[in-house]
Automatic annotation (TrEMBL):
GO terms for molecular function: DNA binding; DNA-directed RNA polymerase activity; zinc ion binding. This is DNA primase. CDD domains: TOPRIM_DnaG_primases. Monomer. Interacts with DnaB.
Amino acid sequence: MSGRIPEEFISDLRHRVDIVEIIREYLPLRKQGNNFIGLCPFHQEKTPSFVVSPQKQIYHCFGCGKGGNVFSFLMEKNSLSYPEAVLYLAKRCGITMPENDVSPEKARQEKKKQRYYEINEFVTQYYHRLLFEGAGKEALLYLERRGLSQDSCEKFLLGYAPQAWDQLTRLLLDKKVLPEELLILGLASKAQNGNLIDRFRNRLMFPICDERGRVVGFGGRVLDDSLPKYLNSPDTPLFSKGRFLYGLNLAKGPIRTQDQVIIMEGYMDVITAHQHGISNAVATLGTALTTEQARMMMRYTYNTATCFDADSAGQEATLRGLDILRQLGCHVSVVTIPDGKDPDEFLNKQGREAFLKRIQEALPLLEYKLQKMLEKYDASTVNGKIQVVQGLIPDLHKVQSPVARQGFIQLLADKLGFPEVAIHAEIRKYQQGEAGPNTGDRNLKLSKNKFVAVSATAKAERTLIRLAVEIPEITPQIEEAGGIELFTHNSLKEIYQLNLVMRQAGHNIKANDLMAFLEAKESQEILAEILMADELPQDWERALRDCLTILELEYINRKIQEKSNLMIQCEQKGDISKSQELMAHIQQLVIHKQRLIATLRKGGNGFEN
């Protein structure tokens, strides 16, 4: 199912279901006051922190930060897309989905994709059957030498592609599969004479599944010395290497409960890990981690441990992927395997406990990068020390926590025998060449997918969002004060803008209705936390005035900084006239700022830290 689902249908469906009733099918809930509480289904915990509000029809976990409405719960718990969650609830309520939602062309495309899945499933079972017949004897012996059990072969549906040039092709053509379908799915290719031949021949086969367990493609490993050693399906309507993680369909549950994912490089690494009880392991299909793969993992956890092969290519893949994970807000650590062993080799020789010990000893991202820098440069020389520091400065600059940054600076100073003040000077030098800090990141941050207020400005932004959503008649006042420009965090901007557009279009929607139309999952979780954690102020008119004053004050601070930077540039260029004009404007802003501060001091507010 695809296409835009009518808002009226979504709203009607939501009012027919009770979120408490739905969530109770997945976990026990007990009443506490006006809400229901239980153990969070998305992370391990002993004390209940998962709260469901029947009044607001939303949920929020105060432990891991997951939150949303009934649709987002089903999407998160069952790995459904938004349309699939809607369809599930519609069937449950006995409601027919709107027929005009899907165009005839889209319906044809969906039907075609479903046929592709069915073909891939047939091929998977065919390869799997051959593995345990005479033809797959060599592949089975290889798996036994690698230490894999029959249970693991069954769990991951391993198979064998026969050596004949066109055995699979002929079988599928007999089954009425079209030649163009074989080519589209990458199961066959054209020989020089124009005949179709099998793409995978005499290979151990690894079916690659999506999160729902549907086979989207294949990986094949040779059983002799021919090249390439590994061959994957080409890009198809179902498969693209950078969009999937091997084993995620099996690992997503353990990842949620353990609140950690172990990222490996190859098929054998993951299968061996699962065989040894390390069931939260996935693989990147032999490529550097992509942003799309990182976001897939973040549906289940923000804690990642990367464990790639010991060869140089594996190390490079580690470094390329780490920055993506960090930039998306994950807690990143790196598992190092001693003696140049690959993860599956280490597990088979040393066992599960030894591997778990390596995970516990995994280095945080910056410490791992420091280790690599010390291996690369001679830190016994002044030049080597400088190269190490300069190589780490971009990463240090991005560390949000002052405590974490200072802790690493101390570690770096100790390792290099450098004074801390010199490292601070290098950071300042780097910052002078960078754009100003993002004020949204300064005021608001996400930690383990949880919204955290760290300043009076952030608290005012949260309260203003709550007021705007719950009391729509105040929207003109907010717009007059600056509207969306008052907010510094992208998620809050999205929430405010959507609320504004929906109200202006005449939709009388409730807060939990609004959540369904937010595109970013981060925005849904932030709104859920605001609605669940923050009570609507009793004296909301005063709260509104305080919020607008505080946010206007922050806006003026940004303008003063902006114009001060421009004034310095004008002075450097010798443009005295423009510099004086900017100075006059700054003075006006400062006077206005002082008036606002006086207003806050006179009236007091509830936003002080």
